Queue: 3 jobs
Job 1
Amino acid sequence: MVTDGMTGFLVEPGEVEATASALERLLTDDGLSARFGVAGRARAEELFDLEKTAGALARLFRRHLGLLRHAFRKRPAKVRDKNFDIVRFVGGAEGDA
């Protein structure tokens, strides 16, 4: 999510000098943290846009639901669990084979 130098600083774990240098830049450059904040918010809104994310998730569900339907057409229609009716879930009907 963080783009080094654009939305924040990335430093390797344990790199004390690199961490100190990044913190010093944030403390001495008056507008840097604000610029990182604006750029970070824009990046987060781009990456996690509700419509894009929901659309991608819906496509994923439709694709996997289609795979389930295909798989269960080759099996008996009455694949049931007392708490879950797979035939109804994948859109099949009694007697479909």
Job 2
Amino acid sequence: MEATLNNIGISYTDKKIASVLLHGIQAENQTPLYPCGLKFLDDVKDRIQDSRIRIATSVNKEMIQLYWWIGNQIVEKQEQLGWGKSVVEKLSKDL
């Protein structure tokens, strides 16, 4: 790894950082960053990604329900009270 890094002009500090990123070891004392191995890091990353997906799905679901409710309320008011199409434009400006 060192020879390859030297060939492309990476500094000593960059090599230490690359070593940590690639091997999961601290450059100073060569002890493992994660005693249980890099699988721990991968597990944490996977859990974060899974949570992000669940959060986005939940938010999308709530937004769809909100927009459906608003649309349903407008249609009901148009039918019950004879509102015209201009109420949608006015409502969008007021919101």
Job 3
Amino acid sequence: MLRALAVGLIVVLLVIFAAHMAVPLVAGAITLSVGIWTFLIASVVAFCIMIVLAFVFTGIGLMIAGGAGFIWLLVTLVLFPFLLPILLPLFLVAMFISYVNKRRAKKELPKG
């Protein structure tokens, strides 16, 4: 009886020790995963916002937003190459909107 109690106590202590050793590893993996997903979602959201802001900005503001978007695209593609099929079409849409706005702005300039 005493031997079974000692074995049970040792098993419980080993399980508690294993849980205390495993929790930091699991917490670190979860933290890393949440950080990566946050960056990925932020990338897609930033490009969508950049596309919307392309309708608002003109001139140098559009160039700054486009340059920031291009730099973000490069950094994201270096860190997460599997995002290329998601981010590249968004970037191409942003460039197309920029081109259309630029042509429209040239047509609206008063000739004098």
